[in-house]
Design a protein that fits this description.
The structure holds two protein chains of two kinds.
Chain A: E1 7-18, E2 28-39, E3 43-47, H1 54-61, E4 69-74, H2 79-84, E5 88-91, H3 105-114, H4 125-137, H5 153-165, E6 171-175, H6 183-200, E7 203-208, H7 211-216, E8 220-225, E9 227-232, H8 239-245, H9 251-267, H10 273-277
Parallel strand pairs in A: 3-7, 3-8, 5-6, 6-7
Antiparallel strand pairs in A: 1-2, 1-4, 8-9
Helix pairs in contact in A: 3-4, 3-5, 4-5
Chain B: H1 3-9, H2 11-33, H3 37-56, H4 66-91, H5 96-125, H6 133-138, H7 146-165, H8 167-175, H9 187-228, H10 232-257, H11 261-279
The chains are: A alpha/beta, B mainly alpha.
């Protein structure tokens, strides 16, 4: 077991800027002084506009980028070390997999695990078993022998989730999991994540610009736009907060999110949040009063 | 001379061709799936630079240890070119084709200049003749020495062993490169391993089919096999069977018809692909 089981992810004062694109230009800031902790076994939704630093945050948690300042700890390890130990499962936004590769679904799911085993074992039965269990968890047992290229889009996504959970990671990171998925598919996806969370008890971080993806399966929500603000989800999320988070986005997206925000409000107890917090200009004034539940990135202004 | 006598005479070349066929059978599945055909093409043309370098350094004879030293120089040159391509491609936002275009033409131009300088020196200094340009371009199977054959077999055994050792990470890298890092693997390292193994195999294949045709052996068997099956083990097995068969048939045809062996092997592999393409439906 890894040390520090109470926090799956601990981020303290992390900043990151991409290098300047040309000589004489400034570095491109992506994240500014982010602090948050994700308790083990919880589900965190990270909501933010495109360009708000979500992908950067994911890459930092996976240890694919190094922060310019601050500390990250993933399951008690440096992020890259946690990744090397296969403690972190990752579902990318768009798969880069060559789907007409000559692999069965089961082989594709087992491959990352098998690639870590000794080259001298001709057949990695433990990886095969783990793949079968993962396929069972996502409800794809009967499709294990199909060629990976014969799956529909939704089935492929489930296979990729099976691939991510086959090593039984302690943390699962989902990057924009519902982009291009229809409403019914989104519901199935939310149910699947619920099932995985209940049965495996892993920490799940879902990153999205789409409130529906976040609201369905998150215990808490962090609003991310360069800096971060925390809320119990979805209760603390009001249209005003969303407006704040998405303030720099273009009109059409803003309009669409407004609709989403009302939908989220309807799902929740609508009685007071809007009025209580609707006029606050800043996200971090808007959440409820129990301070220990909200590790707050300090104000971004 | 009877067919068998000729075959015995060409035994070292036949051994090299079959060994290269085995390598091509294994690697071509990866080359096709990972779209490395043009990389292979670039590396094989870069081998021409190595040939020129070997010639100017004086390792020009077709007998003794010269062919082995020459192959070693060509190998170092080609692997270096391959690494230069991957470095350039990283620097220029993954424009691998441009990087290959630059490295390939640079090494071919350099190779030809060096070759001409060596040829002039040989003419005025009375040294032995250089390997023919035609042989370098299209293969010189029949002049392969037995020392070259042994070296090739040894190098091929090493390549196969390394392929076997890294097989699962290479498969994952070919299937989904971006999944390597989250799986805890070193993506760049796998890419380099594949590049070095591919470049080494290209160098061995250049002996059989020359810098122009060597890619055929490292593309066509896999392309043919993948038309016949979409399962992992059958794809590799049938690719190896197709490679060895087409190379064998190609050599036999070249002896029977007195056609140049490298080109005949390449044509045989093309015909095999064509048959597979026509029988499995053109559009697939």
């Amino acid at each position: 077991m890894s040390p520090g089981p109470d926090h799956a992810v601990a981020i303290e004062g992390v900043s990151f800027a991409y290098p300047a694109r040309a000589v004489g230009e400034d570095p491109v800031p992506a994240l500014r002084d982010i602090s948050m902790t994700v308790p083990a076994g919880t589900r965190l939704g990270v909501l933010g506009p495109n360009g708000g630093g979500k992908s950067t945050l994911v890459k930092l948690i996976l240890g694919l980028l190094e922060p310019d300042a601050g500390q990250l700890s993933v399951l008690g390890y440096e992020p890259a070390e946690a990744r090397r130990r296969a403690l972190v499962g990752y579902l990318p936004q768009r798969t880069t997999a060559e789907t007409d590769f000559p692999l069965s679904v089961r082989q594709a799911v087992a491959l990352p695990l098998a690639a870590r085993s000794s080259p001298l074992t001709l057949r990695d039965r433990s990886a095969e078993r783990a793949a079968d269990e993962a396929l069972e968890l996502v409800g794809m047992t009967d499709l294990g022998n199909r060629p990976i290229g014969a799956l529909s889009g939704g089935q492929l996504q489930r296979a990729l989730i099976a691939r991510a959970i086959a090593p039984r990671p302690k943390l699962l990171v989902l990057d924009e999991p519902t982009v291009g998925v229809d409403a019914a598919g989104q519901q199935r996806f939310a149910d699947l994540i619920d099932t995985l969370h209940d049965r495996l008890g892993m920490t799940i971080i879902t990153v999205s610009h789409d409130l529906r993806a976040i609201a369905a399966g998150s215990d808490r929500v962090a609003c991310l736009h360069r800096s971060v603000h925390f809320h119990d989800a979805p209760r603390g999320l009001t249209p005003a907060i969303l407006a704040q988070v998405f303030a720099h986005d273009v009109e059409p997206l803003f309009g669409r999110l407004h609709v989403d925000a009302h939908a989220a409000e309807d799902c929740d107890d609508p009685s007071h949040h809007h009025h209580d917090h609707g006029h606050h200009g800043s996200c971090d004034h808007a959440h409820d009063p129990t301070p220990d539940e909200h590790t707050t990135g300090e104000d971004d202004r | 001379m009877t067919f068998l006598e000729q075959l015995r005479l060409f035994a070292p070349g036949v051994v090299v061709a079959l060994v290269v066929a085995l390598l091509g059978g294994l690697l071509s599945v990866i080359v096709v799936m990972k779209r490395l055909a043009f990389v292979g093409q670039g590396v094989s043309h870069a081998a021409f630079g190595g040939v020129g370098l070997a010639a100017i350094l004086g390792f020009a004879s077709t007998t003794g240890t010269d062919p082995v030293v020459r192959t070693a120089i060509v190998a170092v040159f080609s692997i270096g070119a391959g690494l230069a391509v991957s470095h350039l491609a990283r620097r220029t936002q993954k424009r691998t084709d441009t990087a290959i275009g630059i490295v390939m033409t640079a090494s071919m131009a350099l190779g030809f200049v060096l070759y001409r300088l060596a040829a002039n020196r040989a003419r005025t200094g009375g040294a032995g003749p250089l390997p023919s340009i035609e042989g370098v371009l299209f293969g010189e199977l029949l002049s392969i020495s037995s020392s070259a054959a042994w070296t090739t077999a040894g190098a091929a055994a090493l390549i196969v062993a390394l392929l076997f050792w890294h097989r699962r990470s290479i498969l994952l890298w070919s299937f989904d490169e971006d999944a390597c890092a989250p799986a805890g693997l070193n993506t760049a390292r796998i890419g380099t391993v594949v590049l070095v193994l591919l470049a080494s195999s290209v160098v061995l294949a250049v002996q059989v089919a020359g810098v122009v045709l060597a890619t055929a052996i490292l593309v066509l068997p896999g392309a043919t096999a993948l038309r016949l099956t979409r399962s992992l083990v059958p794809a590799f097995v049938s690719s190896v069977v197709i490679a060895v068969t087409t190379v064998g048939v190609g050599i036999a045809l070249s002896i029977e018809l007195d056609w140049p062996p490298g080109a005949t092997i390449a044509l045989t592999q093309c015909v095999a692909w064509l048959i597979a393409a026509l029988t499995t439906g053109w559009k697939r």
